[in-house]
Write a structure and sequence with these properties.
The structure holds 3 protein chains of 3 kinds.
Chain A lengths: L1 H24 L4 E7 L2 E8 L3 H22 L12 H10 L5 E2 L2 H16 L9 H6 L14 H10 L6 E4 L2 E4 L12 H15 L4 E6 L2 E5 L7 E6 L6 E7 L4 E6 L4 E4 L2 E4 L13 E8 L9 H7 L1 H6 L5 H7 L4 E6 L4 E3 L1 H6 E3 L2 H6 E3 L6
Parallel strand pairs in A: 15-17
Antiparallel strand pairs in A: 1-2, 2-6, 3-5, 4-5, 6-7, 7-10, 8-9, 9-16, 10-13, 11-12, 13-14, 14-15
Chain B lengths: L2 H22 L6 E6 L2 E7 L4 E6 L4 E7 L2 E6 L6 H4 L9 E4 L4 E6 L7 E3 L1
Antiparallel strand pairs in B: 1-2, 1-7, 3-4, 4-5, 6-7
Chain C lengths: L6 H22 L12 H11 L2 H18 L6 H20 L9 H24 L9 H25 L1 H16 L1
Helix pairs in contact in C: 1-2, 1-3, 2-3, 2-5, 2-6, 3-4, 4-5, 5-6
The chains are: A alpha+beta, B alpha+beta, C mainly alpha.
Chain lengths: 367, 118, 182
């Protein structure tokens, strides 16, 4: 009797031990952080052995570094070598003959042109000169004095994506005021690129965060990846949501890059119609479901789509959100009022009780 | 119920109350993790009062810890966003200094999310 | 096939069957809070420990865990591992705490201690395997409160049963039931 009991207990303990071993062997979460792309990149990989996860994230970080050198609008890759985009901008400025561009730039220019059209030119990556005038094209920018005349002249020159002509892997511009700045596109593009790479490497579960824009692959164990949304004025999260496989999230905020001058906040998001920073909105968050293969991808949309919505005043926001195909949307205006679409409301779990009380549910299409 | 039973009931009640207080005052972070570029510079308990000086990419920054809170108190960067972030006290809160490639994250028993959208 | 069985085996089988029935009953009754269950089957384990000895209690407990999971079709599933881990750890604690002086520490004490061991074992599995997330810590106080509450209730029930000598009544009942069936 006692002997048999000990056998039962040994079997039971073995059951636990076997499961313990399985658990122990299951690779945990690998997390790595790096400053590339002029911002903080944060990669989490779940369910891969640690050394593989490590080499994959290093691979991605290096690719980002490489991409950064190609796409940087204002910093030379090294002292005597400018980025491919820099060279293109020089050619545009001097109205030279068409110059050769890489397939990467061709792809980006075509996609950006399409998105620019879709947004009524509110997403306009050709206003590099304007952004430079405001001083946002520097790692360390200062409160500048505002040069109203220069701004007026740049608005009059009216650079748009339509001025750029791409043919046979070459490009030229019909307008010398065109200066590409992919600041609102490159991070999203890099997200899609990293997600594509990881899927190709058969990584099932990962979360990539480039300067706040996030894309999810698979999930975190048996739960979806969960992301927090930053409070525009405090160092905490206002809400969390689950990011399913292939979904991306992006926020445009007046708190990301800004300077204060005479007590007024000037943020880095500039209305291309007026040439001045937007002052009526604190933050716009968009959530993007997976897209069809021949469309702009979720990462790019998470970066691009929030900007036109940020720029338009409150009354036009639903319309532009519709034009950009955005259903999951949260807007925080300058008086800290929160507007969310019903779709977004269903996804959100509020952490900040003030915001929860102040949130107004509003569909994008107002009939 | 015997005397010992009462003892066990009281002891367990105290344990349950302690668990509630400890794990449900949740957002109280216990440590701050400082990251410099792509490495963890150090993890420090929040139950102390001290200043930590870290040599970032730009220069020396000071991180202060007082009674369960932490903040950037001095930074060589131009915009001082990191310093303006102020005190961090809840688990999951973070402050990042991009120019100096330095970040703080508070770590506690619970974490509400895997990554932050900002 | 002939297996030689003793009176002791019969008793264990009968009590284990009773424990399995309680376990199954609990499995089908929905709980308001997922994971929080009264653990009434533990009453049988405790009862056996007091009335007979530790090895009988361990038999009853193990038979209950294995047989219930087979009957519910959960064998080797997460639910089974959870229940096994809880039962094993609570047996360990019972073995230790049965050496406490009986004069002061009765069924209620052991019931509470076993209940805490039960949730501790389960939460360890949850944390390590099922939800490798620190957020599990958030649930610990709720489970601990439930363990305390049901530990006391189950302990008091066991105490009553021991005083009322339930087994003899049960025996009479099953005898009468079998006689009516024939």
């Amino acid at each position: 009797m006692r002997k048999k009991l000990s056998i039962v207990l040994i079997v039971a303990t073995c059951c636990i031990a076997i499961f313990g071993f399985i658990v122990y062997n299951k690779p945990p979460l690998y997390h790595s952080q790096s400053y590339v792309f002029g911002t903080l990149v944060d990669i989490s990989i779940y369910g891969e052995p640690e050394d593989r996860a490590k080499s994959l994230s290093n691979e991605i970080m290096q690719d980002f570094q490489h991409l950064h050198h190609q796409l940087h609008a204002w910093k030379p890759a090294s002292e005597n070598q400018i980025s491919e985009l820099g060279a293109l901008n020089l050619a545009f400025a001097s109205q030279s003959k068409p110059i050769n561009i890489s397939p990467l730039i061709v792809e980006i220019l075509q996609d950006a042109t399409k998105l620019s059209k879709q947004s009524n030119d509110l997403f306009n990556p050709t206003i590099g000169h304007l952004i430079g005038t405001w001083g946002f094209q520097a790692d360390e920018f200062a409160a500048t004095s505002i040069d109203n005349q220069k701004i007026a002249a740049l608005i009059k020159a009216n650079p748009t994506m339509d001025d750029i002509v791409v043919a046979n892997n070459t490009a030229y511009s019909t307008n010398s005021s065109v200066k590409l700045d992919l600041g609102g596109y490159a991070k999203g593009y890099a997200l899609d690129r990293a997600a594509r790479y990881l899927r190709k490497q058969h990584v099932k579960h990962a979360l990539i965060n480039i300067g706040g824009n996030i894309i999810a692959l698979g999930q975190h164990g048996d739960k979806p990846w969960r992301v927090g949304i930053q409070h525009p004025r405090k160092p905490s999260a206002i809400a969390t949501l689950d990011l399913p496989d292939g979904w991306a999230i992006g926020t445009s905020g007046d708190y990301q890059r800004y300077f204060m001058l005479d007590g007024k906040r000037y943020c880095h998001i500039i209305d291309p119609r007026t040439g001045y920073p937007v002052d009526h909105t604190q933050a716009v968050t968009v959530l993007i479901p997976p897209q069809a293969p021949d469309h702009s991808q979720a990462g790019v949309l998470s970066d691009v789509a929030s900007k036109p919505i940020f720029i338009e005043p409150a009354e036009n926001k639903p319309k532009i959100a519709d034009a950009m195909g955005i259903k999951y949307l949260m807007v925080i205006n300058q008086s800290s009022q929160v507007f969310v679409t019903p779709e977004m409301q269903n996804k959100l779990t509020w952490l900040d009780q003030d915001f929860k009380k102040r949130a107004h549910v509003q569909p994008t299409t107002q009939h | 119920m015997l005397a010992g039973d009462w003892l066990i009931v009281i002891a367990s009640s105290v344990l349950v109350i302690f668990l509630f207080q400890h794990l449900w005052s949740h957002e109280h972070a216990t440590t701050v993790q400082i990251r410099l570029d792509d490495t963890v510079y150090g993890t420090y308990s929040l139950n102390q009062q001290r200043d930590i000086h870290v040599n970032g990419t730009l220069g020396k920054a000071t991180i202060s810890i007082i009674n369960g809170k932490a903040r950037f108190s001095q930074s060589p960067c131009h915009n001082q966003y990191c310093v303006h972030q102020g005190w961090l006290s809840r688990s999951g809160q973070a402050a990042i200094c991009l120019p100096n490639q330095l970040s703080l994250e508070l770590i506690g028993e619970t974490k509400h999310y895997d990554s932050l959208n900002y | 096939m002939q297996i030689n069985t003793t009176i002791n085996d019969h008793r264990i089988a009968k009590l284990a069957a009773f424990a399995i029935a309680l376990h199954m009953l609990e499995a089908v009754i929905p709980s308001p809070l997922p994971g929080v269950k009264p653990g009434i089957a533990n009453i049988v384990t405790l009862y056996v420990l007091f009335k007979y000895d530790f090895s009988s209690a361990a038999w009853v407990s193990m038979l209950r865990v294995f047989a219930s999971s087979l009957l519910l079709g959960q064998f080797l599933s997460p639910t089974f591992i959870l229940s096994l881990a809880g039962a094993l750890l609570s047996l360990c604690v019972l073995w230790l705490s049965m050496h406490l002086p009986r004069k002061y520490f009765g069924a209620v004490s052991l019931s509470i201690l076993a209940a805490f061991a039960h949730i501790a074992g389960q939460l360890m599995i949850v944390r390590l395997w099922l939800i490798p997330h620190a957020s599990v810590a958030y649930l610990i106080p709720i489970f601990a409160l439930a363990a305390l509450f049901f530990g006391v209730i189950n302990g008091l029930i066991t105490h009553q049963l021991l005083n009322n000598n339930l087994e003899t009544k049960l025996e009479n009942k099953t005898d009468s039931a079998s006689s009516t069936a024939t």
